[in-house]
Design brief:
- 46% of the residues lie in helices and 0% in strands.
- It is mainly alpha-helical.
Length: 107
């Protein structure tokens, strides 16, 4: 399929060539498509609509994000060895500002 050509235009070009006697093998070579595209074009006047993907499901951790954020905020005041995460050596106020903005605190 040449760049900029829609599927509707491709289907419109394929069908008359087939009815004029062009073989199923010659059509994919002429138009640069696969045999399955030619087959779909010959079975239906209109191309199939594009399949949409299923909506993204929520992450399993979503119910616990508030709890995790609270733990991480409490860790900012804990001593280095009592923290749940490895954080860069920043003053607690800077770490808290980064965490509240949602920036990862891993080194």
């Amino acid at each position: 399929m040449p760049p900029g050509q829609s599927k509707v235009e491709l289907h419109a070009e394929l069908r008359p060539d087939f009815h004029d006697g062009m073989s199923n093998r010659a059509l994919p070579c002429k138009y640069g498509v696969t045999w399955s595209t030619v087959d779909k074009s010959l079975t239906s006047v209109w191309p199939q609509p594009r399949m949409t993907s299923a909506s993204a499901r929520p992450a399993k951790r979503d119910p616990f994000t508030l709890l995790i954020d609270e733990i991480l905020l409490n860790d900012l005041d804990a001593t280095r060895k009592q923290r749940h995460t490895a954080t860069p050596d920043l003053p607690p106020s800077d770490r808290r500002a980064l965490l509240v903005r949602g920036i990862a605190l891993t080194t």
